[in-house]
Write a structure and sequence with these properties.
There is one protein chain. The chain has 316 residues and is an all-alpha fold. The protein contains 13 helices and two strands. It has a two-stranded antiparallel ribbon. The chain is globular, with a radius of gyration of 22 Å. It starts with a helix and ends in a 10-residue tail after the last helix. Keywords: Membrane, Olfaction, Sensory transduction, Transducer, Transmembrane, Transmembrane helix. This is LOW QUALITY PROTEIN: olfactory receptor 51H1-like.
Length: 316
């Protein structure tokens, strides 16, 4: 038995992909390439929105918040993941683990809140197109953004405190290459009912509320779109939601999957848990800029202007 100070106040050990230790160099290279694409993609989205005055609209302001949350989530996790695979340095101090845990969950719920705000924006834009700017001024956008940030801080602040009160006397080896609240609390040798209750309340009142709000929003959008007489107008109106719908699937499918794996997938291979955890961390920040860059006409045209095609004239 280890006492509280021997583990709780020193280090945890992160884990790479089980059974593939000989391929750590390849994993490190792939992670590094993905990290570069994530940084470039989200930074480009932010740069385009900043310099183009026509994009200073609520939808694009929320998109910039989404890009910031993706960058924050990536910068909170990818350095330690690279450290595990590149240099095989797997130890992380207890304080650093708590900080990483807080930022992972904070940026996760900030992204969820932003997707809710974007759904609300689409409802107002489609149902009240003539009064959209009156009903949705930038002051309202700022208040929504601040509310989403305050919510994620309030929701995530108890997690490190609840972990800090635990004693760890079994093992300090984590299941992932980053610190995740359900993973860390399982290592405790004392009662974790408070931590489980906290996680359940957070999932119900954040993830549950957000998903329900988005579903209701799209039911309202669908009713409005189906009420439009012209088939082409229906397609044109609904096409403004395609990017947002893709972002919803990209974010919520991995997070719901990893939550279900934590609860019901204990019998599955550790490789399945690790791969889903990596998808949960890497895929949303990687795909969101691609989706919005390809599906949003204004952003696509602005990005294309940065790379003008050179006309090559052939003289005979």
């Amino acid at each position: 038995m280890f006492d509280n100070s021997s583990l709780n106040l020193r280090t945890f050990v992160l884990t790479g992909i089980p059974g593939m230790e000989e391929k750590n160099a390849l994993m490190a290279f792939l992670l590094f390439v993905l990290c570069v694409f994530i940084l470039l993609g989200n930074s480009l989205i932010l740069f385009v929105i900043k310099i183009d005055q026509s994009l200073h609209e609520p939808m694009y302001i929320f998109l910039s918040i989404l890009a910031c949350s993706d960058l924050g989530l990536s910068m909170s996790t990818l350095p330690t993941m690279l450290q595990v695979y590149w240099s095989n340095s797997k130890e992380i101090t207890f304080s650093a683990c708590l900080a990483q845990m807080f930022f992972i969950h904070a940026f996760q719920w900030l992204e969820s809140g932003t997707l809710v705000a974007m759904a609300f924006d689409r409802v107002v834009a489609i149902r009240e197109p003539l009064r959209y700017r009156t009903l949705f001024p930038n002051t309202i956008v700022a208040k929504i953004g601040i509310t989403a940030a305050v919510r994620c801080i309030c929701v995530c602040f108890p997690a490190p405190l609840l972990i800090k009160r635990l004693r760890f006397c079994r093992s300090n080896i984590l299941s992932y290459s980053f610190c995740f609240h359900p993973d860390v609390m399982k290592l405790s040798c004392v009662d974790i009912k408070v931590n489980i209750l906290y996680g359940l309340i957070v999932m119900i009142f954040t993830l549950g509320f957000d998903v329900a709000f988005i579903l209701v929003s799209y039911i309202m959008i669908l009713k409005t779109v189906l009420g439009i007489a012209s088939h082409q107008e229906r397609l044109k109106t609904f096409s403004t939601c395609i990017s947002h719908m893709c972002a919803i699937l990209i974010f919520y499918v991995p997070i719901i999957s990893i939550c279900l794996l934590q609860r019901y997938g204990k019998h599955l291979s550790p490789l399945v848990h690790m791969l889903m955890a990596n998808v949960y961390i890497v895929v949303p920040p990687l795909l969101n800029p691609i989706v919005y860059g390809m599906k949003t006409q204004q952003i696509r045209h602005r990005i294309c202007n940065f790379f003008p095609r050179k006309q090559i004239r052939i003289r005979f």
